[in-house]
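Duplicate of #3305? Posting structure anyway:
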């Protein structure tokens, strides 16, 4: 299944639009507790921050599961090394240009 379609299904959306910002840090510039919540993380930890309109707990749990399923296959990240946070906000907090809040209409 296409990754984008799979994630959209897990988020229960008909469309999934997103922006990816990727930043790689030198080991000396990145500090994460490798054992937090019994994580047993390696130096190859991937931290994913998601800002989203409100989603249900079930949607979020499904997304975490799908991210692990996808990322362990390609590019081969250990499931212990996938660290995800989601920040919820409301539709009026989004503007995709033109000075409009497209999600609040």
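Output from current build:
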């Amino acid at each position: 299944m296409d990754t984008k379609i799979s994630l959209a299904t897990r988020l229960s959306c008909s469309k999934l639009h997103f922006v990816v910002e990727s930043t790689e840090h030198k080991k000396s510039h990145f500090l994460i507790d490798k054992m937090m919540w019994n994580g047993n993380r390696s130096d190859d930890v991937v931290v994913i921050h998601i800002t989203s309109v409100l989603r249900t707990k079930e949607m979020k749990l499904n997304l975490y599961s799908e991210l692990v399923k996808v990322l362990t296959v390609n590019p081969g990240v250990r499931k212990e090394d996938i660290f995800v946070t989601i920040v919820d906000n409301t539709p009026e907090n989004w503007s995709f240009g033109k000075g409009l809040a497209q999600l609040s209409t």
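Confirmed duplicate; merging threads. Strands lie at 46-53, 82-89. The chain is about 25% helix and 15% strand.
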